Amino acid sequence: MTESADKPPILPPHIDETVRAIAKLHAAHHRGATPSERAADRLTALVGQPRFIGVLTLLAGGWIAFNLAAPRLGLGVFDPPPFNGLATIASLLGVYVTVLILSTQRRESALAQLREQLTLELAILGDQKSAKTIQLLEEIRRDNPLLPNRHDAEAHAMSTPADPTSVFEAIKETHAEAEILSDLPPPGA
User: Fold this and answer.
1) d(C-alpha 106, C-alpha 93), whole Å
2) Which of 9, 64, 70, 94 could pair with 75 as two cysteines, CB 3.0-4.6 Å apart?
3) Which of 64, 59, 63, 52 has its CA nearest to residue 97?
4) Contact predicate 131/156, CB 8 Å
5) 3-state SS, residue 4
6) How far apart, in whole angstroms, are the C-alpha atoms of residue 85 and residue 137?
7) Omega of the bond prior to 9 within 30 degrees of 0, cis?
8) CB-based contacts of 78: which residues, under 8 Å, 6+ apart?
9) Closest Cα partner for 64 from 50, 77, 73?
């Protein structure tokens, strides 16, 4: 084996810190789970496996086969056709699996919301950093006697960080206008 195959790639410090921060976010989310949430996660993982379908199929098939063959073997039938007991168990199992999946999705949704919040905060921070960089570049251009001093309206506009509240209001207005336009009949109709 080569030396590079033995060692994981070395990441630049800022990327390594980011990877570790995200891992800590996930670990904290999972550590914060209650015992019942952990049990629900494990059960959902079990139910989500393909072999679970196979086990259910075997159990249902065995149930039906036993109840059909029992009279011929001289045994008592506990759920004769149309297998109301099996239908009741299947319905109850469906309700439990549904609740189990919904509770697991609710927890995963909370983690997704944390990631979305982090992404939004980083995007706003990135916008502020970009605006500051443009401000500094414009200042250098103005102060450098070798460069012509001119007004750059686009650079000036880009040197101002976006106001998240204003952007949010503009998005709401634009979406409302789009909904109104989508409700109008097409021209010539």
Assistant:
1) 20
2) 70
3) 52
4) no
5) helix
6) 76
7) no
8) 67, 85
9) 77
> In the chain, what is the straight-line distance between the N-terminal and C-terminal CA atoms, in Å?
72
Alpha carbon separation from 34 to 47, 72, 181 (Å, rounded): 20, 51, 48
Burial tier of 32 (Cβ tally within 10 Å: 0-12, 13-18, 19+): exposed
The more confidently predicted of residues 49 and 25 is 49
Tokens 């990877």 sit on residue:
19
Token pair in block for residue 102: 């919904």
Contact 184, 178 (CB under 8 A): no
User: Which pTM value belongs to this model?
Assistant: 0.59
On whether the CB atoms of residues 79 and 85 are closer than 8 A, the answer is: yes
Q: What is the pLDDT averaged over residues 92-107? A: 93
Tokens standing for residue 127: 């916008």
Domain limits, the chain: 32-183
pLDDT of 185 > 80? The answer is no
**Around Cβ 127, how many Cβ atoms within 10 Å?**
16
* 29-82 confidence digits (pLDDT tens): 888 899 999 999 999 999 989 999 999 999 999 999 999 999 999 999 999 999
The encoded tokens of residue 82 equal 């149309």
